[in-house]
Amino acid sequence: MVPARRLLRGLLYGSRYDRVPWGQRVYVRPGERLLREAQWRWRIRRAPVLSLAEYAAELPLGEIEEFLSCMMCGESRQQPMFEPTGAGKGGTGRTWRYHVVRCPSCGFLYRNPNIRPERLGDLYSSGYSGFLTGTYAANRQRRYNLTMEAFSPVLDDGEGRRLLDFGCGVGLFLELAEQRGFDGYGVDLSPDSVTQANARLKRARAYFGAPQDVPQIAAGGFDVITLWSVLAHLPRPLEDFARFRELLAPGGVLLILTVNARSLLLKAYGSAWSGFTKNHLMFYSAETLRTLLRRTGFEGVAYAPHYGDTVEAGTTRLPEPLRRRLRQAVEASDGGNMMRALAFGDEAAVARWGDRLTIHRLRDRTAAPDERADLDLTGSSGTGALT
Ligand SMILES: [Zn+2]
Asked: Can you tell me which residues the record assigns to a coiled coil (predicted)?
């Protein structure tokens, strides 16, 4: 940190917040939320708005990459915002770097250039399961349970219900799902992860590939589909979500956990934000997720603010007044670091859970039938890819 800023911080806060972990400081220091939000608005005003041609002319294009327009609204203009970088895994010393733009029309954040969908497997072909064990596994399973509790009672009892975990990895969630009685299925693009998952599971089964490649899954009829930290990895979200909608049984729900593009930590740390990981492609807010769900035929969505796993599990060392301040900052800014959402496929799903959860309607039910057709763009031609 530059000395002037350190001095300013010292004058403002003294050493009072030195023991608060980095991931919580921006939420608990007085005035910081408003400051970061102002900083964010300034950053957006300052970023140039370029045509896609102007933008693409400035950047090299890798073999497995392509330039995109905004997939949520079709806008082709680009606001260059961030350039995350990182070190390669396993001490290879190879670093990665990519560019993140903001759509000047709808605010969607996405990597541009992005990864060609047919080359997506390249990112997961080998060694991807390696780090999915140990403390990581325990923390993940705690996170799954906390998220399911946040939408209780929808996922409490799996008896007689079919569940698909899309991007199931080594089966850590499917293991919990079978314990809750679900009839569990998983798919993943990493072959060694699928092997490990099937070794772990008793009744549930994991498969390699896309849902349409596996007959047991292509048959559909799922009461629950889960996307645990998967949404940000999808290069063709409209196609995928239209398929999820088809795979849902009447009354079915889709559970999503992903990094939050409105995170106060993104506003504070920019390119160094933890949500910009090597294989992330697109970054959603509650608003842009609503667009995705509406365009792919979903009926409603509920959100549960994310306060951080240690706060929710009661293991944080933050004193109670600071915990309260953190919760207030998350709620006032919709700024939790992760976003949790439960999408409802049809009227039956909304009707079943609507008295227990606050469900935002995705379609204007008072519109005339032909106007409703305009709102539902399922199967429209534009994927946003610049071919
Ligand atoms: Zn857009």
From this structure: none
Its sign, for the CA torsion 99, 103, 104, 107, is: negative
User: What residues pack around ion ligand 1 (CB closer than 5 A)?
Assistant: 70, 72-73, 75, 103, 105-106, 108
386 inside domain: no
| Centre of ligand 1 from the C-alpha of residue 384, in Å | 10
> Does residue 214 sit in the same domain as residue 193?
yes
**CA angle, 208 then 212 then 214, to 5°:** 45
When divided into structural domains, the chain yields a total of 3
Computed on alpha carbons and rounded to an integer, the radius of gyration of the chain in Å comes to 21
Centre of ligand 1 from the C-alpha of residue 246, in Å: 25
Q: What is the pLDDT of residues 232-276, one digit of tens each?
A: 999 999 999 999 999 999 999 999 999 999 999 999 999 999 999
pTM, two decimal places: 0.90
CA distance 117 to 23: 33
Q: What is the DSSP string of 320-376?
A: HHHHHHHHHHHHHHT--SEEEEEEE-SHHHHHHHTTTS--EE-S-TTS-HHHHHHH-
Q: Which tokens belong to 47? A: 């970023």
pLDDT digits (tens, 9 = 90+) for 209-219: 999 999 999 99
Instruction: Identify the domain containing residue 14 by its residue range.
Output: 4-45
